[in-house]
């Protein structure tokens, strides 16, 4: 990456096939990946002017509940998933997508949110952006009934956005350039 006219080496390690990473011109990084079987992860971070990467948030998006409590999730989630399962049996228009557990690295604060999807065809769906879904729906009531404090989807995004200035967050895409290509022929056993 070029910073103030000098080249800074930055490495982004990508070690699995079910994910993606983006970094903008100011070094704001978003990484999203799947652990498989209904658990996904999202990380935001920032590469500073010296090329050092700092994690800002870690999120775990849990789509399924298999009867075991993950460390740190707590007993209340057993009740939550029971309530959600009952709603899912009746609701044919919407689909509960995931409980989102987000840690804010600097403060150590952990908050919860959730995502809902809307069916738009037999096999297609889209994420619901309607604010009422996250405040007045049966899914929102399930969180309240289970005694779990949560942020709405918009509140969670606003809290994450507050960590980085808007101009840095909305910077343009990086133009990647090939600096070196090894054209050495591979040796073969003959």
Write up what this structure looks like:
It is a single chain. By secondary structure, the chain is an alpha+beta fold. The protein has one domain. It has four helices and nine strands. The strands form two sheets. It has a seven-stranded antiparallel sheet. It has a two-stranded antiparallel ribbon with strand order 1-2. A hairpin with a 2-residue loop joins strand 4 and strand 5. Helix 1 runs antiparallel to helix 2. The longest helix has 15 residues.
Based on the model shown, name its key terms.
4 helices, 190 residues, two-stranded antiparallel ribbon, 19% helix, 7-stranded antiparallel sheet, 33% strand
Summarize the SSE layout with pairings.
Blueprint lengths: L1 E2 L2 E2 L11 E5 L4 E9 L2 E9 L5 E10 L13 H15 L3 E11 L4 E11 L5 E3 L10 H9 L6 H9 L4 H4 L21
Antiparallel strand pairs: 1-2, 3-4, 4-5, 5-6, 6-7, 7-8, 8-9
Helix pairs in contact: 1-2
